[in-house]
Amino acid sequence: MLALAVALLVAVLGPLTAASASDQDGPVSRPADQSGAQDGAARAARPAPRREVWQAAEPAYPENRRNPLAGRVWGVYQGPQDQVWAPFQATTGTERRLVGKIALRPRTKWYGTHVPDDQIESRVRDYIAASQQGDPERLVQIAVFRMQPWEHEACTRPSTPAERQSYRTWIDNLARGIGATPILVVMQPDGPFLWCVPDRGRKSRLLSEATRTLSALPNTEVYLDAGAADWCENDRGNDPRRCAQILKRTGIEHARGFALDSTHYTGPGDNIRHGHEIVKLLKRWGYGKKHFIIDTAKSGRPTRWLDMVPATKHDLTDNARTCTSRRMKRCVTLGIPPTVRVAARRWGLPAQDRRVAARYVDGFVWFGRPWLYNQADPFVLQRALDMGRSTPWPGPLL
Q1: Model-level pTM?
Q2: pLDDT at 40 (0 to 100)
Q3: I need a surface site. Which of 243, 250, 353, 388 has the fewest CB within 10 A?
Q4: CA separation, residue 45 to residues 18, 27, 34, 268, 374 (Å)
């Protein structure tokens, strides 16, 4: 009877023993180049897993046994708070299949100043309920993008006392909305903008307080945004020490770790190596062994920020042109699907990158939003269709 039960579980969930970084998670492929890019046709030829993380829990690697994102199904939100879901429901035929490559997978919902202080608690509760669909163990994902001002405006204007108080109130209400939910939080995407603000000390303290408040919740894992493999500070490139210093100022001692590539297009290979350098620095500075997540929503064709081509001559790089074929370069398309199995051979990463990923990377997560205009709003159907056609990775298993 025991053997039968084990066989049934293996059939549903995959192997019960957590595989190491050298496991046979797919056929061996030729190494990627330094940017992590590979021929799209070769990737597409690799077999997909029998189940994705939104269908069945994926086991942790032995090197990262306490990975909080492993061992549980990831929720997929289906409702009005998501810009993708309603357009997906309105599609049919080929369009439905292509947009489904986005809509049917776990994505991170960004919450910011567009949600008033007195509404964030209820909005998040509704989002959690729809994401978990009656299963309180499902992982939910959000990004906290609440600092005001942030990005370019923050470089010229400090936060007012009223804005700082509102931020604290908003975070406290968010924490009540989360409660005991298993949740992944990406804290303040575009973290490198911290370097340009005139009130860096005050903003750093606010972010540290927020990280401490959310990390104190029983099942919340906070990952502080640390830029990308090609971005740690505006106009200063990819110095891992500079990225690590962002984390020192924003509460890394309270967090599970950090997040990379939220708005850039660098790809998993470069970010694994870059993140490893940040991990080593944090450990040297006394913060212990930290882990990280990498956005793969938009890195199907890894491209450095300065090399990316905007959609039109009037657009910003945030609104990169979409790939319209699997051979097109310097364009954006969907990358590796959300997963805990970051060291699987099917992703085509070099052996050294897979070893690092198995130890330190908790997940490839879709917290970027390349299907939105300027990665912000609104949803653009043609962008989604282009990426659905050109991605080198298979669509979701149904």
Answers
A1: 0.90
A2: 42
A3: 388
A4: 25, 10, 22, 19, 31
